[in-house]
Write a structure and sequence with these properties.
The protein has 3 helices and 4 strands. The protein has about 100 residues and is an alpha+beta fold.
Length: about 100
C-alpha cells in the first residue's frame, strides 16, 4: 500500500513530503480560492513536527507553562494519529522506500 505523503494537521497547516524532504505548508487565501503553499522545509518528519509545534504554540497564544503543556499534548496526540494514518516513515528515504 502506498503511503499518503500529506499529513493534514488542521485547517491552516499540513506537512507534506516533496522530492527533497518534508515541508510545512500553510493555507493561503488568494481571492476567492485558496491553496496550501510551502512555508518551511525540513530534512526529517521529526524536525517538521517540532517546527510545526512551535508555530501552533505561538499562534494559540498560550499563557503560562500549563497552557503550553496542554497545547503540546494536544498537538502530539493529533500529529501521532495523522502520521499513523498516513503510514509513512520518519525520513525522506524511509518514506520513499515505503512507496515501492
Amino acid at each position: 500500500m502506498k503511503p499518503n505523503t500529506t499529513i493534514a494537521v488542521n485547517d491552516t497547516y499540513q506537512i507534506e513530503l516533496d522530492k527533497y524532504g518534508w515541508q510545512i505548508s500553510k493555507f493561503r487565501k488568494r481571492g476567492e480560492e485558496g491553496k496550501y503553499e510551502g512555508y518551511r522545509w525540513y530534512r526529517t518528519l521529526s524536525d517538521a513536527c517540532v517546527g510545526l509545534a512551535q508555530f501552533i504554540i505561538y499562534e494559540t497564544e498560550c499563557h503560562g507553562a500549563v497552557e503550553v503543556k496542554e497545547a503540546l499534548c494536544q498537538f502530539e496526540d493529533k500529529i501521532t494519529k495523522e502520521i499513523q494514518k498516513a503510514g509513512i516513515g520518519n525520513t525522506w528515504v524511509e518514506a520513499h522506500a515505503n512507496q515501492q
